[in-house]
Design a protein that fits this description.
alpha/beta, seven-stranded mixed beta sheet, binds guanosine-5'-diphosphate
Amino acid sequence: MSRFGGARFLVSAAAPAQFPADIGAEVAFAGRSNAGKSSAINAIVQRQGLARTSKTPGRTRLLNFFELAPARRLVDLPGYGYANVPEAERRAWLPLLEALRARASLTGVFLIVDARRGLAEGDQALLDWAAQVPQVHVLLSKADKLNRGEAAAALRATSATLAGRGSTQLFSALKGTGLREAQDTLERYLG
Ligand code: GDP
């Protein structure tokens, strides 16, 4: 039985006016495109197909809200780092991000980072954006692709870069590595 058994899609917001009411608590999931964000969401919420990777330009600026429990939400942010997204579209979601971080209900951010790649430029920008968000957790995804030594090194490097700003862990949607820890953290952020 899933701990987030009641998870359901709420809305794809193209403008702040479409956001759900700012009540309760919500956690944003962010990451470079292809980092494994959709796979992580589906694994954590234990609902295959709940989050879908949208690689279609034009849909890359939508914020997808899911309700995990009454007044407890997950917000799936557009993946960043697409080479072929027009500048105008890239800029279009900045006001959405500004509006999101102004919400009292945004208690935390999950940042999904490919463990082989580590924190990169777009991730740093995301962390800057999240500077006022109370809690940040970095999932080092696709950990199954690293051997033990590489995984430990990735964890150390990310912890050092975060320098106390957030927590981090190894994660594999494929193997279930770190799933429990990620679910516990999400539950804690949602209060
Ligand atoms: P998104 O663009 O960040 O939402 O990424 P996706 O969840 O769509 O994943 C991108 C690619 O990485 C897909 O080919 C997935 O099958 C693969 N992937 C995601 N999670 C894992 C994982 O834990 N292990 C491995 N080996 N591959 C993964």
